[in-house]
Amino acid sequence: PVEVELAPVTVGDLKAAIPGETEPTWPTLLEMGERSTVMAWDMLMVSVMMKKVEQARTPKGARKVGAAMAKEKYGWGSYQFSCLDTLWTKESHWNYRARNKRTGAHGIPQALPATKMEVIGTDWRTNPVTQIQWGLHYIDVRYETPFKALAKFKRSRYY
């Protein structure tokens, strides 16, 4: 067998120890420059967002994400969320793929036209978080609360 001598790996200012090396010969505190810190923060945010998107692909997960977003951004508690849950269960059953073939309404909040959701993101067809974000904003601007949006829905079968 050929023995290969391994040396520590250095990429820019980042050094990595060799597996099995008992103690590196350089300081073990990882220091990043400003650009590296920003890139790490961006990667963390992307990771958090992707986890939220994947969770929201099921109706149960979408409800959980929706409740958290409603509370965090609009201060809507459990009563308002129960109204939102009733409304969006009637509209789409919290299915981000829901589409009304007759009207073209799409997604969890059943946006009509569906392209309205582009103001939040161009991924509105496949991203349940984009749909939830748009739907919460729509309710806030148009009705102020999910309670008022649900009341409108009960009167006219749309909101």
Walk me through the structure.
Helix content is 50%, strand content 4%. It is mainly α and 159 residues long. Strands 1-2 form a two-stranded antiparallel sheet. A hairpin with a 2-residue loop joins strand 1 and strand 2. Helix 3 packs parallel to helix 5 (146-156) and helix 4 packs across helix 5. The longest helix has 22 residues, at 34-55. The protein starts with 8 loop residues before the first strand and ends with a helix.
Short structural summary:
This protein has 159 residues and is mainly α.
Q: Topology, pairings included?
A:
Layout: E1 9-11, E2 14-16, H1 34-55, H2 59-74, H3 78-92, H4 128-143, H5 146-156
Antiparallel strand pairs: 1-2
Helix pairs in contact: 2-4, 3-5, 4-5
Keywords:
159 residues; mainly alpha; two-stranded antiparallel ribbon
Termini separation (Å)?
Answer: 73 Å
Morphology call: globular
Question: Averaging pLDDT over every residue, what do you get?
Answer: 87
Which class of secondary structure composition applies to the elements? mainly alpha
* Radius of gyration based on Cα positions: 24 Å
Largest sheet: 2 strands, antiparallel
Helix content: 40-55%
Strand % is: under 5%
Strand numbers in spatial order across the main sheet: 1-2
SS element count, helices:
5
Strand tally: 2
Order of helices and strands: EEHHHHH
Low-confidence stretches: none
